[in-house]
Design brief:
The chain is α/β, with parallel strands linked by helices and 452 residues long. The chain has 2 domains: 38-203 and 346-449, Alpha/Beta hydrolase fold, catalytic domain (Rossmann fold, 3-Layer(aba) Sandwich); 205-305, no CATH class. It has 15 helices and 13 strands. The chain has helices at residues 5-30, 82-91, 135-152, 168-186, 205-218, 224-242, 246-264, 281-300, 307-321, 334-340, 350-358, 376-383, 391-396, 433-436, 438-448, and strands at 38-46, 49-56, 70-74, 110-114, 124-125, 160-166, 192-199, 267-268, 271-275, 362-368, 400-402, 413-418, 421-426. Strands 1, 2, 3, 4, 5, 6, 7, 10, 11, 12 and 13 form an 11-stranded mixed beta sheet that branches. Strand 8 and strand 9 (271-275) form a beta hairpin. The chain is globular. The termini are far apart. 48% of the residues are buried. Mean pLDDT is 90; it is low at 16-35 and 278-290. Its EC number is 3.4.16.-. One of its GO terms (biological process) is negative regulation of blood pressure. This is Carboxypeptidase. Its main location: secreted.
Amino acid sequence: LYLNRRDILSLIYIIIYIIIQTFQKGAVINRPTEEGKEVWDYVTVRKDAYMFWWLYYATNPCKNFSELPLVMWLQGGPGGSSTGFGNFEEIGPLDSDLKPRRTTWLQAASLLFVDNPVGTGFSYVNNSAAYAKDLATVASDMMVLLKTFFDCHKEFQTVPFYIFSESYGGKMAAGIGLELYKAVQQGTIKCNFSGVALGDSWISPLDSVLSWGPYLYSMSLLEDEGLAEVSQVAEQVLDAIGNEKYKEATQLWAKAEMVIEQNTDGVNFYNILTKSTPTSATEWSLEFTQSHLLRLSQRHVRYLQRDALSELMNGPIRKKLKIIPEDQSWGGQATNVFVNMETDFMKPVIDIVDELLEAGLNVTIYNGQLDLIVDTMGQEAWVRKLKWPELPKFNQLKWKALYSDPESPETSAFVKSYKNLAFYWILRAGHMVPSDQGDMALKMMKLVTQQE
């Protein structure tokens, strides 16, 4: 076979072209096939009850989304929106100015935001009787949603699935986690459920309230007289819960917050180094006698849907989603969600955490150093009440320092872990850990999901 110079050059060009195309195809194959993909929808969880979810596929430059975990994020309140606050203020790909978030969890996991209980965020009810009134209903509704989700998105049935949460979302995560474990064991839901992470979580309201006074006193935010006043109300909460008078305990919880605000010059319950909007004693007295629930809702739900975020969700985001009913607005039913859960607020779920541990599920507890509403002292107190047989060995361990920046000597957190229980103490963070310490929160998520 004779080839002239032109033929040889042509052959070389063809070979180079084939090599380039092969390389490019390989690069495409190795990239996530769902990069940047988002999907969202409603699920009818009960008659007149519609729950909204929003999924982002992981966008890691080196791994396909199927090689990374799926994380569901649950917000607090109850009534705080996961698709709003959790997404745009904490861990989603964009911040509330629609600018890329450097510490988004999307680089290490696919993210599923769910507005629950029904009536939260873009979720809604068509009948006031359809609001959830207890944790059992919240968990039952979520089972309907998760079954629908995993049946429709089979690509996620085998990837590790974790529930991360914050505040009251942690209480819901515990209850949901236990029911999901049972559903997986029974085969009614197909997913690779791998654990729960309880962030600044309302697991034992009593332990939180009892620790408020000592914590504030140790931080020079209460003096002797103020400590005595806070402790007196805390003892009343103790008595009410001991007698299973949970509505009364909720009223006393509101009273305890009032006493703290008056004695601390308005300390912010979400970060003790900042202040909340001052409230006069007259206003407090009026609001407390008329509706302690509305006051609590104003503090713990309204905070999660401030004006700028509300405008974003009810403006550009609503237009993007295109499926929100015309008569519904983001956050429009949030106060009703909060009020309807009144009898559930002060009930502890320590026993549920025990069941999760006994089932062998990974349970992670993490808490911000500067949080008050669910301060670290209170978290440590209820952990000591666990009946998990391995707890003594967990307690005997020394914690380990963590650094979000390997080149910095500044400690970012401490962690203690034994078998399927881990506790993270996040430094310089308040109630919303990912908002305050984004780098450390991202590192923690990777550690929890066994990526580091």
